[in-house]
Each structure stands twice: as C-alpha cells, then as structure tokens.
C-alpha cells in the first residue's frame, strides 16, 4: 500500500500519527508537494479526484481518500491498540468526540491559517483575511469549551486515548501558525492535556518522513525502523487498557520539539 501525504498538512499528519500509534511500518509514503500544486495535477487527480491529501492506495489499485475513512481501514487491518472504539456504543461516542474536534476545532484553525498566513496564499486564492481572523476568534471560544471538558475527563473522548486525541493534537500543532497556544489563553486543562500528549510522543516531532527528509517527491519510500522509540509512555499502560507497551517502529533521528 501507498499513503500519499504532504508536508505539514494536518490531515495527513493525523493518518501518520495513527500509524505511529499502531506501529504500522509496512506502508510506503509518497510525498505530494502542495506548494507546487502537485495535488492538482492529472496524475494525482486520477487517484484523488477532489485533489485532497491524504490518499491511501490499496494493493489492488483502489484508493481511499478522507482521513477518517483511511483510519477506519487501518483500524480493521491492525485492530490493536484499539483507537476507534470496541463495540457500537463506544465507537459512537468516540466518533462523536472526533467529529467535534475535527469540525469545531481543526476546521476553524485551518480556515484561520489558510486565510491569514501568507505562506498558504498559493493554496487559498483568494484569501479573505477578515474571515480568517473571525475564524481565529471562534477557535478560542471552542478551545475554551474543550478546556472545560478536559477539566472533568482525561482524554477527548473520555477515560482513554483515542483517535479524537490524535485529531486534537494535530489541530493544536497546526494552530501554531495562527500563534495560538492553550496556556497563553489560560486554558490550563487543555494545556495539561497537550503537555501529556507531548510526553507520550516526544519524538513525533522528529518524525519528518512526511516532510521529505526520508521521502522524495512523488517517490515511494518505506518508513525506516526506529533508532529511538517514537512513543515514551508517561503513565501505566493500563490507563489505555493495554496489556503491554506497544513497540513502535516508526521514527527517525531524535530531535524533540515542543508543540504545545
């Protein structure tokens, strides 16, 4: 299989982080240069007609687009550790939490960044700065709600780590481009969650395969085996409901960076 991804874009990073959490190391990554509009070309549009990343090309040639659809497929292939729910009831509540994060937080951040950041002007024409700034204000309001939520539960969907936390982490990471950090806004619970998440994936900041360090443009490359563990769990595995520490084979050189 091949995963078509892109530098620094939050949705492809949701999938690669999902893969990291599951220890999936046998999917080739193909980097698509958005700034050069490679996603608009005929070759890529033949795989993803709406010119969106990520896209997962299956071994039989079929292509899955949409981040959550890709994660659902990978969850089926690699059910452990479970990130999307066990049983219909838990799956429903985790999907609700993930959708809330995606549509209320990540979308607002993306709109703000795409319409105010000069580096994304090539992707968003025309840019509407007023709309972008209004979206940024709404992000703060929504982040406050998530901060209040995390005052009463450990993770976005409840008592354990799920795909909703991956979506939220990628959203907050992307929000750096609009100069937003939870702590500076006084959202202490959201900041504490973010800091805990940072500790558990302290080397994820070094995971630059989808940024082109190990993946050449439009060239497949198998993700390398790790030299340092991607995940350094900062709590008992039982808090995630795991019977043992997961072995993660996805990382490159250690270069910790604080995202939150």
What does this structure look like?
There is one protein chain. The chain folds into two domains: 120 residues, Glutaredoxin (3-Layer(aba) Sandwich); 113 residues, Up-down Bundle (Glutathione S-transferase Yfyf (Class Pi), Chain A, domain 2), CATH 1.20.1050. The longest helix has 29 residues. It is built from seven helices and five strands. With 260 residues, it is α+β, with helices and mostly antiparallel strands. A five-stranded mixed beta sheet has the order 4-3-1-2-5, covered by helices on one side. The chain is flat, with a radius of gyration of 18 Å. The C terminus is likely disordered. Strand 1, helix 1 and strand 2 form a beta-alpha-beta unit. The two termini are 32 Å apart.
Characteristics of this structure?
260 residues, alpha+beta, Glutaredoxin, Glutathione S-transferase Yfyf (Class Pi), Chain A, domain 2, 7 helices, 6% strand, disordered C terminus
Give a summary of the structure in a few sentences.
This protein has 260 residues and is an alpha+beta fold. It has helices spanning 10-22, 42-45, 67-77, 88-116, 129-150, 163-174, 188-200, and strands at residues 2-5, 28-31, 55-57, 63-65, 221-222.
